Amino acid sequence: MTTTPPSPSPPRPGSSASSATTMTTTTTGAHHSQSQTSPTVAGPVQKPSPPPVDILSTPAAQTYAHVHPALLLALYALRFPSMMADPVSEMTTQVPLLAVAQVAYVITCFPAKGTVMSSAGTAAGEGGAEGAERRAVSGTHGPAGTGVVKAGKVGYRRKHHGHGKGDGIASRLTSALLSLTLTSLLGTPILAILLVLFGAPLTTHSPHTILCAMHMSLLSSTALIYVYGVDGAVWKEVYAFARPADAVWGGALGTGVGAWLGAVPIPLDWDRPWQAYPITILTGAYLGFAVGSLISRTPLLYGKRLSFTAPEEEQHEKSN
């Protein structure tokens, strides 16, 4: 008896096409899923603006930060009769004294560029420019305080910490002298041009204009360069009057505003000896520096920014 093997069942109509369609759909879906989950290339990390800088926490810094503006005003008032008698000679005599006083001020009261910021800066931690730079170099994105800089490690950048005995006074003095040099070579001609643009004599009184610009540059720019160096983000905010208020920016802004207000009495027909150019401008610059340095550290102004737009416009810009 012979057994007949069962014949294979015929394929159902449309099953082959259905299978092909299913495979095509699955493959297309897989490619679509991969295209959706493919990683995107992130752009370069933008370095945020440095936070406001507070006075160093040492007793000497806290004390001298209040003494220095008063000391400058006292010395200026003491020499004011000589200023009225011969402005050029007196301003020339006061330039080295002001330079020494400003160097002592920045060395005593502020952290130099490249060192750990003061309590306000370190409190910002990873949210400030130091933390962003540390994350960008080390590649870590952990919480604040996790990126400890270690020498000899690949991907870490050596940073100078504090004001130790070894590199303290020498490095701070070097930074102060460099900032003084840049202030004299760059700040003086820029401010002299601004004085002329705001109405100072162009063809006469050139020594008066240059010496006044040098005084204003020493008052406004020495601390800025000492603390921030040539950081482009900071200087863009300086040009835009957008730095957060602190002792450094307050002194610089106060110098400019005081000099501008000091020019008001010059054209008045009072015929007073102190109205001669540029005595009132220089007096306003000194007063503005003292007032700006002191009030910008108060809780009312510290960390605040000048705003030239309405609140609705600011909110719209942030949302965009």
Order of helices and strands: HHHHHHHHHHHH
Tally the beta strands: 0
Parts with pLDDT < 50 across at least 5 consecutive residues: 13-41, 116-166
Mean pLDDT score? 76
Q: Work out the radius of gyration.
A: 32 Å
Class derived from helix and strand content: mainly alpha
Describe the structure.
This protein has 12 helices and no strands. It starts with 14 loop residues before the first helix and ends with a helix. The protein has a domain at 59-114 and 165-308. Mean pLDDT is 76; it is low at 13-41 and 116-166. By secondary structure, it is an all-alpha fold.
State the gist of this model:
Residues 1-56, 121-142 are annotated as: Disordered. The protein has helices spanning 15-37, 59-78, 80-85, 87-109, 119-124, 129-138, 168-197, 206-228, 232-239, 247-262, 279-295, 311-319.
Helix-strand layout with pairing:
Elements: H1 15-37, H2 59-78, H3 80-85, H4 87-109, H5 119-124, H6 129-138, H7 168-197, H8 206-228, H9 232-239, H10 247-262, H11 279-295, H12 311-319
Helix pairs in contact: 2-4, 2-11, 4-7, 4-8, 7-8, 8-10, 8-11, 10-11
